[in-house]
TrEMBL record:
Positions in coiled-coil regions: none
GO cellular-component term (any): cytosol
PANTHER family: HTH-TYPE TRANSCRIPTIONAL REGULATOR YBHD, NITROGEN ASSIMILATION TRANSCRIPTIONAL ACTIVATOR-RELATED
Annotated protein name in UniProt: DNA-binding transcriptional LysR family regulator
Protein origin, superkingdom: Bacteria
Keyword Transferase: no
Length: 324
């Protein structure tokens, strides 16, 4: 039997097309032109001497042969990537590519310094940095569109990803600085100000709603925001109150002098920010990223916030690496 002349890049392109059914989507994801995508796909088909994709249909559909081959390509590429991981482990100078997603709360202060420090540690690496909400980062990690992500730990199970916890970020009540109502009034529904919610499309919004249900607190749903700045801006203007976190509050610096944070008197709860990667990604690289982010979170978030709000110290802190 004559051995086919398959290229690794061609197999990777075929795998992406098998998942998306679209050369244009693969083009956007890889940065390659559609003609280059088609060239790689045709190269794989010609090497095997058969069609793997029905090119006449949109989205493209795998032929029966393509379905069988895709299953083996998936397994084969996984073995190859695991081998690369073992070879690269602990040798950061050999890292060639890093697709890193960072949650929105950290985009202005942590992300730039993180990029600078990683560029020094990995001089041969090409970086792609993205800022997204946590749920989008985790989705991209599952889709293998990111190598490493910094995100809020979700309610849903992510046991297929490796987690490196970074920060314990407690939930607090945010009131206008001149509010006469107490946090207890707000949670009991006695405030004239409406409750301003984070969107339930966001992990932070889901965590808050879960806690409210758990503690049997029912509040009208009049305002819901995906934007942290919009939500805290409304609080600063005296238009409502919110449940937020110190890290989210820290990001909205322009409003801080008009917002007062208060602790939950009972049933306190918190979220965890963490670094996530797949088991195929070099652990040494992910640990380096986590260590740098912990240092930046301490200097840009924890220390300045505790200087002004020392009562947060028992609950707001950088997590020790041993907790991984």
């Amino acid at each position: 039997m004559q051995r086919s002349n398959l290229s690794l890049r061609g197999l990777e392109i075929f795998q992406l097309i098998a998942k998306s059914g679209s050369a244009s989507k693969v083009s956007k994801e890889t940065g390659l032109s559609i003609s280059t995508i088609s060239h790689h796909l045709r190269g794989v088909e010609e090497s095997l001497g058969m069609d793997l994709v029905d090119h006449s249909k949109r989205p493209m559909i795998l032929t029966p042969a393509g379905v069988i081959f895709a299953r083996h390509v998936e397994e084969g590429l996984r073995v190859i990537r695991r081998g690369e991981t073992e070879l690269m482990s602990g040798n950061l100078s050999q890292v060639r590519d890093l697709r890193l997603g960072i949650v929105d709360e950290l985009d202005s202060e942590v992300a730039p310094e993180l990029a600078q420090q990683l560029s020094l540690a990995m001089p041969n690496c090409t970086f792609k940095h993205l800022n997204r909400p946590s749920h989008a980062i985790l989705h991209m990690l599952h889709e293998k569109k990111l190598d490493v992500g910094v995100a809020t730990r979700p309610i849903a199970d992510v046991s297929d990803l490796i987690e490196f916890p970074l920060l314990r970020d407690p939930f607090v009540i945010a009131l206008p600085i001149n509010a006469t109502e107490t946090p207890e009034d707000c949670l009991a529904g006695r405030s004239k100000m409406p409750f301003l919610r984070y969107s339930q499309n966001l992990i932070i919004g889901n965590l808050i709603e879960l806690h409210l249900r758990r503690t049997r607190v029912s509040l009208p749903n009049r305002f819901e925001f995906e934007s942290n700045h919009s939500l805290l801006g409304m609080v600063a203007e005296g238009r409502g109150w919110a449940i937020t976190t110190p890290a989210s509050y820290n990001r909205a610096k322009r409003y801080q002098n008009r917002i007062a944070l208060h602790a939950f008197q009972n049933k306190a709860f918190s979220r965890v920010l963490a670094v996530y990667c797949s088991d195929l990604y070099p652990r040494a690289t992910a640990e380096l990223i986590a260590d740098i982010v912990r240092s930046l979170l301490s200097s840009h978030f924890v220390i300045p916030i505790l200087d002004s709000l020392p009562w947060l110290s028992p609950d707001f802190y950088v997590l020790d690496p041993s907790s991984t």
